[in-house]
Structures are given as structure tokens and as C-alpha cells.
Write a structure and sequence with these properties.
Radius of gyration: 29 Å
Number of helices: 5
Helix content: under 10%
Strand content: over 45%
CATH architecture: Beta Barrel
Strand order of the largest sheet: 1-2-3-9-10-11-12-15-16-18-19-22-23-24
Number of domains: 1
Number of strands: 24
Length: 556
């Protein structure tokens, strides 16, 4: 095979960690962000409790929605019940794109419509005590978000991140240890000089290198990063509760998780001077000094992007990169709980949840396209508007399978009711040291060692409900701390750590004892920061993800 073969490669390139990881890892790399993405969940799945941000679920509520928290709560049901919610998602991202020479901001909103929850429970007729079974299909987490940012950069280029750290020369073939370097070479985003290699120097060069002295500050890049993630994690929960003593319920259940996660990215980088180049290069003056050379057979710097003798592609115009990662998730866990009526007004509960044993299949692919002003591979060719370079990769890529064992969870909650007012609070401890990542074809010893150094985090929920006549009004707040000690600046320049905050509110209308209509709102807020590529522009994001639920409860 020749040193440059213009064929398609079904291989991967550059991973993009939306959950907060800096780019520079390939999609084959599993990170801690993957562990947290599939371990985290919403504070509440649906039903009336959504208006209280899930507060009271660990104490044990008398509804099938308790399966998302403490299954022992089923025992408080005096009859059968059916619940369901329809959810509208709306995620708004305020994003800041900071390069060494510019800072720009952009807003983007993405929406989705889906089933929030569908649940039912059956109370067996018993002479004493209580025996109830229930099942619930609900949304455990959502991944809707997106941003589109752009800015000027005269210091760095993404093409520099494709340069290989190690390689071998086998005859007329280059063997790359890093597949992203290989695909970038096939696409023309980096080039190789045999003459430089023969002299004993590093022989690879990036197509765009605005920081090199040869450019003399004449190359400014216009960069764009457009990202969209979508999908959700669902749970099918089943459970049973029994009254083991007056006012004491025990319950347990099996829960099946399944869902998808999709990340789509379009990255574009172009020579900003091309906007005016076609006009400037036909005039007598040439203030930019980056027009096609007078003698096409002997291009000189700074026009030659590689600064090499004998290269065929000259005059960098543009590189485009498209990435797509599709992940299918499936797994199972167990929940066991106790719920007790401690006094006539106070109810308490305890919960233990096993790890979720997840199997993940990830399909990924990348396509890169480049454009240059001239192609000297066969004859001098510098047409107006430039020429296409090479293209490599495909959006249908390779599959990768791996396994994640999520952490153990321990929870407890209290619920106090007096004269129509209910106040509830929950605390959940997550032991992150028990998480684990594995695969048949790779070792994650380093990642698992980092996980073992983490400390436990505590999720909290607080909410209140006030019922009067045929209506009930609810408010709530929940907090989900981020594991680890990572800190960064948000878009306002304030230090933050990426903790997730949830605010909620809701109202129910109950025209009869058999039927209730619910309207709930749940908002998730958090900040994020990462690099668009290694040593590249900083992307700061503030996300507000709103969920509106319309639901019903029917007690036949």
C-alpha cells in the first residue's frame, strides 16, 4: 500500500466527552464520565412525587412510583392503582467558546417528547396486613443537550493533535500506533516527509499551524464545534411489599435498565483569510501573503502549510470532522427496603440498592474531509475556490463492548404530615469505590484505581406538599454532587464543580377519590467545562434541562 491511499477506513478518531472530560481520547477509551453517565439518575421518575423532586420516596409513598425509591412503600396501598405521565423535555445550553485571542458566546435549545412513566399496583385482599405487587416503566435519566459555538484562533489547530507519538516505517508504508493519526494522514490533515525522516528529524507536519514563525501571524483559523447528545436510560421496575408487623412494611424488587446514548459532533476549521482570498488574489495587492504562489511548482512558506519540499497539497483551506457514537445499554439490579409508620404523623424508611450490572455496546465512526488551494500530485492545479483534498473514515464504524458495575447505594428518608401539610426529606449515600469497568479486550486497571480513590457522595432531596379540598400543591429541591474534586470556572468566571441541582413544582386536581390529574415541572441545572481538543479552545457550558409532565392517577 502506498504512503497515502485515498480509500475509506472504517476506523475511529477522536472521542468527545460531553460529561466533562477534555477531548483527546478516542471512542475506544472508557472514562470515568462513562461510569457516572450510566450510574446517575434523575431524583424522581414521574407521578405526583415529581412535584416534590422525589422527596419522600425513601420513606415509602403509597403509590407505584415508590418502586423508583423504596419498594416497601407499596404496602401502604389500600387498593389497586394505575399511574402514567407524558413528558416534554427542553434543554437550553448557554455556551462560551474561548480561544487565546477571542471569546464568543452562543445559546441553543433542543427538545424531546417521550413517556415519563407508566405504573400499576395490585393490592391482594387479605384478612390482616397488606400484600401488594407493582410494576413501573419509567425514565431513569435523560441525555438531551446540544451546543454550537465558533470563534477565531491564531494560536492552535486541531490538526496538530493528530500528529503521531510513535510510528514505524515498513517499506513504503507507515504503521501508526494511534488510529486517529492514521485516519488524519489518509484525510490529508497531517503529512509526512521522507527527506526529513532520512535526516533523522520528526517527519510529520500538521496541515494548519498558525503558531509557527514561518506563518508570521498571517494565518487565523475560524473554528466551529457543534455537538448534540440524545437518548435516555429507562427502567422496568417490579416489586412486592408485605406488612410484617402492624405499621411495618418490607419490600423488594428486581429492576431492569435499558436505553441508548447518542453523541453527534461536527467540527469545522477553516483559514479565515479564505473569506477574502478569492478577491484579494486577483488584485495587485496581497496584504495576507497567503495566495497561491506565482510559480506553482515551487510554493514557498507561509503558503505551504507543511513547509516541506515536494508535498502535493498546498494552501490549507478547511478541515471538517464528523463523529457519531451510539451506545446501547442494558442491565439489572435489586432494591430492598423497609418503611415504618413511626407515629400517626411520621413515617420513615430505609433502602439498600445493589450495584447495577450494565452491558454496553458502543458503535462509533468518524469521517474527515480536507480542502486545499492547490493539488500538485499530477500537474499544477490552483483553481479559483480551491480543490478538494482527501477524505477518510465513515460514520459507520466499529463496535466495542464493555461492562460497568455501578456503585452500591444506601438511602433513608422521613415524611411528616400534619393538617394537610406534608414535609419530606431523603438522603442517599453512593459508595463510588465499588464501581468497576471491564472488557474482554482491554484492561481498565488505571481507571479502576482512580475510582477506588474516590469518596462517597450524598444525594439529598427535600420537598413539601399542601393539600386543600380537591387540590394539592408541591415544591421540591434535590442536589446531586459530582464525584471527585474537579473544579473549574463557569461562564461567569466563578469557581464551580459541576454539581447538579434540581428544582421542582407541581399541582394535582382530584375531582373524585378515583381520579387525579397532575401537572409537574422538574428542572436540572449544572455547569460544565472541557477542551474542544487537546490544548485547544475552552468550552464552558451552563445547562438548564426542563421537564414538564402531565399525568393521571386512577384508583379502580
Amino acid at each position: 500500500m502506498s504512503l497515502r491511499s485515498p480509500r475509506f477506513l472504517l476506523i475511529l478518531l477522536l472521542g468527545f466527552g460531553l460529561a466533562g472530560a477534555a477531548t483527546g481520547q478516542t471512542p475506544r477509551d472508557v472514562t470515568f464520565e462513562d461510569v457516572t453517565r450510566y450510574s446517575e439518575r434523575l431524583p424522581v421518575a414521574g407521578g405526583p412525587q415529581a412535584g416534590m423532586a422525589g422527596a419522600g420516596l425513601f420513606a415509602g409513598i403509597d403509590g407505584p412510583g415508590t418502586l423508583f425509591g423504596n419498594p416497601a412503600g407499596l404496602g401502604w396501598l389500600s387498593g389497586s392503582v394505575i399511574e402514567g405521565d407524558f413528558a416534554v423535555q427542553r434543554a437550553q445550553s448557554n455556551t462560551q467558546f474561548e480561544t487565546p485571542t477571542a471569546r464568543t458566546s452562543a445559546d441553543r435549545t433542543v427538545s424531546d417528547y417521550q413517556l415519563g412513566s407508566l405504573a400499576g399496583a395490585y393490592s391482594f385482599p387479605t384478612e390482616r396486613g397488606s400484600l401488594v405487587i407493582g410494576i413501573s416503566l419509567h425514565q431513569a435519566n435523560t441525555y438531551e443537550r446540544g451546543f454550537d459555538v465558533s470563534g477565531a484562533n491564531d494560536a492552535t489547530s486541531i490538526t496538530g493533535t493528530f500528529l503521531p507519538n510513535s510510528f514505524e516505517i515498513d517499506g513504503d508504508e507507515i504503521v501508526f500506533d494511534d488510529v486517529r493519526s492514521r485516519i488524519a494522514y489518509e484525510a490529508g490533515a497531517i503529512d509526512y516527509s521522507q527527506a526529513v525522516f532520512d535526516d533523522g528529524d520528526y517527519p510529520f507536519f500538521a496541515a494548519a499551524n498558525p503558531s509557527t514563525p514561518a506563518v508570521d501571524d498571517q494565518l487565523e483559523l475560524r473554528q466551529q464545534d457543534n455537538v448534540r447528545t440524545s437518548g435516555q436510560l429507562n427502567e422496568l421496575a417490579s416489586g412486592v411489599a408485605v406488612e410484617v408487623a402492624p405499621g411495618i412494611m418490607l419490600g423488594g424488587g428486581l429492576n431492569l435498565q435499558f436505553g441508548t446514548y447518542t453523541s453527534e459532533r461536527f467540527y469545522r476549521e477553516m483559514d479565515a483569510s479564505n473569506i477574502e482570498r478569492d478577491q484579494i488574489c486577483t488584485s495587485e495587492s496581497n496584504p495576507l501573503g497567503l495566495c497561491p504562489p506565482d510559480d506553482p511548482s515551487n510554493p514557498q512558506t507561509p503558503y505551504d502549510p507543511y513547509f516541506l519540499e515536494g508535498t502535493s497539497l498546498e494552501g490549507f483551506r478547511e478541515v471538517q470532522m464528523e463523529e457519531r457514537i451510539d451506545t446501547e445499554v442494558s442491565g439489572a439490579n435489586f432494591r430492598f427496603g423497609l418503611s415504618a409508620q413511626m407515629t400517626s404523623s411520621l413515617r420513615g424508611g430505609l433502602l439498600i440498592e445493589s450495584p447495577t450490572w450494565l452491558d454496553l455496546t458502543r458503535e462509533y465512526g468518524t469521517e474527515i474531509r480536507t480542502r486545499f488551494d492547490c493539488d500538485f500530485s499530477s500537474s499544477p492545479n490552483c483553481p479559483q475556490g480551491g480543490v478538494e483534498g482527501l477524505e477518510s473514515g465513515d460514520l459507520t464504524g466499529e463496535d466495542r463492548e464493555y461492562r460497568i458495575r455501578t456503585p452500591w447505594r444506601l438511602g433513608g428518608g422521613l415524611q411528616y404530615t400534619f393538617a394537610g401539610l406534608t414535609i419530606a426529606g431523603d438522603v442517599e449515600m453512593i459508595d463510588w469505590t465499588q464501581a468497576d469497568v471491564s472488557a474482554d479486550d482491554a484492561s481498565f486497571t488505571g481507571l479502576n484505581r482512580q475510582i477506588e480513590d474516590l469518596e462517597a457522595t450524598f444525594n439529598t432531596r427535600v420537598g413539601a406538599e399542601y393539600a386543600i379540598d380537591q387540590a394539592a400543591f408541591r415544591v421540591g429541591v434535590a442536589r446531586r454532587p459530582t464525584p471527585g474534586t474537579r473544579e473549574f470556572e463557569d461562564i461567569d468566571g466563578q469557581t464551580t464543580n459541576g454539581d447538579r441541582l434540581f428544582l421542582s413544582g407541581g399541582v394535582s386536581y382530584m375531582p373524585s377519590d378515583l381520579f387525579a390529574l397532575h401537572l409537574n415541572w422538574l428542572q436540572e441545572r449544572f455547569d460544565n467545562q472541557f477542551a474542544s481538543y487537546a490544548q485547544g479552545p475552552v468550552v464552558r457550558e451552563r445547562l438548564a434541562r426542563n421537564q414538564f409532565q402531565i399525568g393521571i392517577t386512577y384508583r379502580p
